[in-house]
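Before going further, learn to read the protein records used in this course. A complete example follows; check for yourself that the lines match position by position.
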Amino acid sequence: SSGINAEYGALHNQKNGTMKTKSINTEIILCLSPNNNISQSLARLGLSINSYNVVSLSIADSEAELAEKIHDLKSKIKADLVNDCRGFQYDDYEVYDVYGISKEELSIDSLENSVVTRIATKV
């Protein structure tokens, strides 16, 4: 759901002409980031030579366009593709650090809700 919030935020910014970046893809990464620094967002959340787990979000106006984008992605990626992230592993402590989530906050709400709240309310 954090990806959906970031996509919605980026599309909203695009529609209103308030994008802080030059492309919708970079705007999504910026919306996922806990801060408004584009360089830091790309360094922390973008791809690198050492990336081994990648999440792809696609925006399309039709099912046909989405199918074409998925086909194009599959032709460029030399890896196993999955349709969901239920098996995706991440380091909780890195997420706490990136989004500034305290142990006290986690005693009240879940990690996912804390991250989604930060993305949805980012100014």
User: Anything to note?
Assistant: The chain has a mean pLDDT of 82.
